[in-house]
Amino acid sequence: MTAGAILIVSHAGDQHTQAVLDRLGKAGAEPILFDTARFPGEIRLGIAHHNGSGSSLSAVIDGVERDLSAVRSAWWRRPLPYGLDEAMTDPDDRNFAFGECQAAINGLWSCLDATWMNDPIRDEAAARKTWQLKLAAAMGLRAPRTLITNDPDRAREFIAAEGDRGVIYKAFSATDRAWRETRLLRPEEQDQLDAVRHAPLIFQEHIRADIDLRITVVGPKIFAAEIHSGATNYRVDFRMTMYDADMRPHVLPDAVIADLRALMARLGLVYGAIDMRLTPEGEYVFLEVNPAGQWLFIEERTGQPITEAVAEQLMAAAA
């Protein structure tokens, strides 16, 4: 049987996408890269239904027509916003065009006879931190005491209840242009708590630990790495000093692995980058899972073959 096509919904500027494309190319695969930022301006889409005789899905990318009906494996990897024509300046026109693009593209994804990593709908839902925490606790994982609020009074009550243990605060999301690291709340910052009325914020108990864990799940494979953030000058968020921290592979207890697999299954994720902390008492504490989290920084420092695992997962689904 001829292997199906592999579709990657991402963009050429993503380093992780390029690493997987290179790996797939070396294995003889010819994946289709669908960059949503090039739609509708540079990509021509065709979705045809033939009155009971099936459907055909195609896209013209870089002048080549690609048969999307043959796609059996698809990777949803941080796609960019649609590239609407800059000459369209009226806000109503742009909103209309965006909605039409969204409807057509979502319809395309739904029509693909493919195994997704991850399914776009499940990926979006799984990224909701509040739901992650609820499910993690239900799966048996220890999660931090958490308050998400835009009520300054409730925030003050939560902080007071935590006492000397301390509280960290963080945003729901961050981008390269608007980076928002996790921070330990300082006493002088409590005077600024009225500002949370403008947007909800996440407050959590401070999990004191010298070791952070990044656990990358790729289908049946799990790659756990320990990050010795406690030896750096910023112990609250390993992302701030991750290139200064010592990193090495970590062996997870069977019980933690079982709980994480249950969580991934409940979230409907094939791929996920999970952050945990390992306390001095040996307790594993779940923080969050990123359905499209980075892994190259772990692979480079530990030698764990995560890129190869991603490529193999995509090829196995296309077989």
UniProtKB/TrEMBL annotation:
One of its GO terms (molecular function) is ligase activity. Gene3D superfamilies: ATP-grasp fold, B domain. It comes from the Bacteria. PROSITE patterns: ATP_GRASP. This is Alpha-L-glutamate ligase. Keywords: ATP-binding, Ligase, Nucleotide-binding. The lineage of its organism: Bacteria, Pseudomonadati, Pseudomonadota, Alphaproteobacteria, Caulobacterales. Residues 133-315 form the ATP-grasp domain. InterPro entries: ATP-grasp (IPR011761), MvdD-like_ATPgrasp (IPR048936).
